[in-house]
Specification:
This protein is about 70% helix and about 0% strand. With about 90 residues, the chain is an all-alpha fold. It has 2 domains: about 5-35; about 45-85.
Length: about 90
């Protein structure tokens, strides 16, 4: 956390309301007033998109795992080819 951010928090945590920063003082504080890189907040739309992407990735992984399990657990793999040669 930057020193400017710490300074602002210290001024906001003052118990005495007369000494605590007002809204106008907060807006003038260097940490709030300075030009900064755009930081996108996790809005509900952003969070929903993240959750959907995460679910799609998870679904793909589960589908791939399922297909591997099916191939490994096929009756021919479990019982062996000789079982099928004699039964049919």
């Amino acid at each position: 956390m930057s020193e400017d951010a710490r300074d602002l928090i210290r001024h906001l945590l003052v118990r005495d309301p007369h000494l605590r920063y007002s809204a106008a003082e907060v807006l003038r504080h260097p940490w709030v007033a300075k030009e900064s890189r755009h930081v996108f907040l996790a809005t509900p739309r952003v969070l929903s998109r993240y959750v959907l992407q995460h679910r799609k990735k998870k679904k793909k992984k589960l589908e791939m795992l399922g297909s591997i399990v099916l191939r490994l657990a096929s009756p021919r793999k479990i019982l062996g080819e000789k079982f099928f040669e004699h039964s049919g």
